[in-house]
Amino acid sequence: MPTFPTLDDAPLDGRRVFVRVDLNVPIKDGVIRDDTRIRAALPTLRELQGRGCTLVLATHLGRPKGPPAAGDDSARLGPVAARLAELLGREVRYLATDGPGTAEQQAFVAAAPAGSVTLLENTRFDPRETKNDPELARVFAGYADAYVNDAFGSAHRAHASTEGVASLLPSAAGRLMERELSVLGTLLEAPERPFVVVLGGAKVSDKIAVIERLLEVADALIVGGAMAFTFIKAQGGTVGDSLVEDDRLELARALLAQAEARGVPLVLPADAVCAARIVPGLETSIHPSGAIPEGLMGLDAGPQAIADFRDALAGAATVLWNGPLGVFEVPPFDTGTVAIAEAIAASGAMSVVGGGDSVAALKKAGLAERVGHVSTGGGASLEFLEGKTLPGVAVLGHVPWH
Ligand code: ADP
Ligand code: MG
C-alpha cells in the first residue's frame, strides 16, 4: 500500500489550502448530468472548512487544449461552482477567466476573504497544466500555503495541479483519495477471500497489465465482454465477426497458461447473444462463444455464461468488477452486464466497481448505492491495480510542514 500523509497528519487548521478536486462532471447545454464527482469531494471540503481553512479549489473539465474561444462557455466551471455552492450550502467564489493562472485570476484569489471557498477556472485552459510546467506550478503554490490532493481520478497524471504544485507546498491526501487508495490497496494486498475478479470491456490490450497483476491475487477471474473473444479464439474457437485483437492471441494464450499454472480458474462466457449489427431491436440468436457463425458478432453474455458467472461469484467475500460484459449501451445487449451487476449488488461481498463505462452501467441499472465502493477514477484505478505508482500520490508529503 502506498504511504502518504492524510488530513489527520496535516496541521491545516486556519491555513489557506489549495485543494485539487476532480469535478470533471458531464455537462450538456449548461446542465450537469451527473454530480457524483461533486458530491464525492464534499467530505474533504466540509472537513477543511470546519478546520477554519480558506479554500482555493482547482479542477479540470473536459479536454480543452487552451483558453476558450470567445463565446464558448462549454468548458467553463460556472455550472460546477453553482452546484458546489448548493451542495456546500455556502458561497463559492468563481470568476470566468481565460485560465487558472491569469493575472485576473491571481487578483481574484488574492482578494479571497478568510474562510471563503474559491473555485479556479478550468485548469486545462492553461496549456502548461498538462505539461506539468514549473512556472504554472509556482503560480498555484502562490495561491496557498498548503496543498491537499483529493482528485484520485487525476492522480495518474503528472500535471501542474496534481504533481508540480505538490512539490512546492506541504501536502496531504484528502478523504476521497485516502479511501480510494485504501480500498484498492486492500484488494491487492489483503483481500478477504475468496476474491473474485470480473473483467470485461472492449480490449484485452487495455487490461493486460491489470490481468497479470490480478492473477497473482485473485481466487477466480471471470472474463467477459468483447475481450473474451480474443481468449476464445486463442483456444481455437470460431468467433464469427466478434471483436478480436488478432495481435494479442499469443498473449491471451500466455495469460491462460499463467492462470492454469497458478490454479486460478479463468471463467470465459460459454455462450453469447449474437447479432449481425449493433442496432437496437435487431434479431438476435444465441450461440456457443466458440462456434459463432460467420456474419454474426457476440455482443452480450448468453444465458449459460450468466449462470456460470453467477456460480463463480457465489460465496465470494471480495469482488472487483471492471468492464461491461456486453454492449450495454444498446439494449438488449445490456442483459448480461445488468445481471452481473445485480448478482454483485446482491452478494454479501465487499464489492468494488471501477472503470468509466462499468460505473455508468451500474448507475443505469440503479445499483450504485448497493456496492461497497464505486471508484471515481477510471484510468487511475486501472493504473493503481496494475501496480503502477501514481505521480499525484507519490509526491505527497515531500515538503515538510513549517
Ligand atoms: P470501462 O470503461 O468500464 O473500463 P471499457 O472502456 O474497457 O470499460 O469497455 C467498455 C466498452 O466495451 C463499452 O463501450 C462496450 O460497448 C464494449 N463492449 C463490451 N462487450 C462488447 C462486445 N461483446 N462487443 C463489442 N463491444 C463490447
Ligand atoms: Mg471505458
Written overview of the protein:
With 402 residues, this protein is of the alpha/beta class. The protein folds into 2 domains: 7-176, 3-Layer(aba) Sandwich (Rossmann fold), CATH 3.40.50.1260; 191-386, 3-Layer(aba) Sandwich (Rossmann fold), CATH 3.40.50. The chain is built from 14 helices and 19 strands. Helix 7 links the parallel strand 9 and strand 10 (220-223). Adenosine-5'-diphosphate (ADP) binds next to strand 16 and helix 12.
Describe the SSE topology.
Elements lengths: L15 E5 L6 E2 L2 E2 L3 H15 L3 E5 L19 H11 L4 E2 L8 H8 L6 E3 L14 H9 L3 E4 L10 H5 L6 E3 L1 H15 L5 E5 L4 H12 L4 E4 L3 H8 L3 E2 L9 H14 L3 E2 L3 E5 L9 E4 L2 E2 L4 E5 L1 H11 L4 E5 L12 H12 L3 E5 L1 H9 L8 E2 L3 H9 L4 H4 L8
Parallel strand pairs: 1-4, 1-7, 4-6, 5-6, 7-8, 9-10, 9-17, 10-12, 11-15, 17-18, 18-19
Antiparallel strand pairs: 2-3, 13-14, 13-16
Helix pairs in contact: 1-2, 7-9, 7-13, 8-9, 10-11
